[in-house]
Amino acid sequence: MTPxxxxxxxxxxGGTGEIGMNMNLYGHDGQWLMVDCGVTFPRPGRVVADxxxxxxxxxxxxxxDPDFIVRHRDQLAGLIITHAHExxxxxxxxxxxxxxxxxxxxxFTAEVLKKKLVEQGLLHRVKIIVPETGxxxxxxxxxxxxxxxxxxxxxxxxLMIRTPAGNIxxxxxxxxxxxxxxxxxxxxxxxTQLATEGxxxxxxxxxxxxxxxxxxxxxxxxEGLRHYIETAPGRVIxxxxxxxxxxxxxxxxxxxxxxxxxxxYGRSMVTxxxxxxxxxxxxxxxxxxxxxxxxxxPRHEVLAVATGSQGEPRTALRRLAAGxxxxxxxxxxxxxxxxxxxxxGNEDSIAGLIRQLESRGVEVITxxxxxxxxxxxxxxxxxxxETLYRWVQPQIAIPxxxxxxxxxxxxxxxxxxxxxxxxxxxxxxxxxxxxxPGIQRQKVQTGRLGWDKGKLVRVD
Length: 460
Fold this sequence. Notes:
This protein is an alpha/beta fold and 460 residues long. It has two domains: 9-213 and 378-459, Ribonuclease Z/Hydroxyacylglutathione hydrolase-like (Metallo-beta-lactamase, Chain A, 4-Layer Sandwich); 218-365, Metallo-hydrolase/oxidoreductase (Rossmann fold). It contains twelve helices and 26 strands. The protein has helices at residues 67-71, 86-89, 92-99, 107-119, 188-197, 222-230, 245-258, 267-279, 316-322, 347-359, 382-392, 404-416, and strands at 9-14, 23-28, 31-37, 39-40, 46-47, 53-54, 61-64, 76-80, 103-104, 128-129, 136-139, 142-148, 157-163, 166-170, 201-205, 236-239, 261-265, 302-306, 335-338, 363-365, 396-400, 421-422, 430-432, 438-440, 448-452, 455-459. Strands 10-9-8-3-2-1-23-24 form an eight-stranded mixed beta sheet. Helix 4 crosses helix 8 (267-279) and helix 6 (222-230) crosses helix 7. The longest helix has 14 residues, at 245-258. It is globular. InterPro entries: Metallo-B-lactamas, RibonucZ/Hydroxyglut_hydro, RMMBL, RNase_J_2, RNase_J_b_CASP. This is MBL fold metallo-hydrolase.
């Protein structure tokens, strides 16, 4: 299946009809462009001894099967990574040897990718091209421009993909945050100018399409986090996504203002922090302390930020809950703050973790029970979706990055915003966007691969 010069195709191999393992292809004039190459969590299954939930026998690391584009590798012009979240970047080190194409990503994302490639011995084999936000590059037959939006990770970018057969606006993950704390912001005129130029299709994040209103800003969280940190009599452990550098910066400010010392626990969190410093998005005036010191400090001076907000096994918070962390033991009077919400499918694992913590006499504060905001989603709620549709004015809306309920709500919203055509589908559907738009259902077979004991295996 090779696109002609008159064709403009969108072909999702992962991330459409589900949340995670994003892998998208755009086709035009004999070539394909891949956007994102991410991993996902194992599907929910049994509860194991430490309280986490896992499907028996499934690999911990899973990703979309790229078989279609591997068979057409000579037509693959390049791979663009929109941002540094695992569900968009995590599969690159496992799949690049099958793809063997240049990788394009901005500065923070490039630092994260380099760390991953080092672990697989690929750093000096992969050509990484780092465009500036706003820059336009010709990638094969596709003219691509990186556009600044905001998300819960530094330097996320939407894409304007221009071809003679039409222009596609690919949002990636995004929100409209007026105070993102770190990294770039966004400008309205960036997107209203796209409308003036003409956008054939807008391929857009659906994660929070069922949520009314506007997502909270990262800049709104200081008061809530400070309240729950300064009122704790003992240690405070905050768990959040390690890639949320803005949240780490807010917590650093809270630590300074409440007389606590902040340390980072969890390999992925420390890695993200190091990448932020190398990319220049972490202010040098903000800092952390060596975690080895925290166990010797008075409990009321400790602020630990730990991985494990989704109840994952072998994370720092899971070890603290089990009493197996080498630095200190949690005690009654300590407080754990979940500055994150559950990714769908992780609810049981998180509930098991909370039970473990409470059995040790630890107080647990979740985002749902907090009287002041302590978490902000990185995805657009309905008001933000309406705003972006009003700015961009695409001829076609294509909801992605969500389960069926999210994409259906997104489709209804796009229709209410006056978008002339809405196309909804799932992985393996071929979206034909030039001339008479439509979908060929299940044109390409899709599935999952897993990384198990140093090799790729098929996941049924």
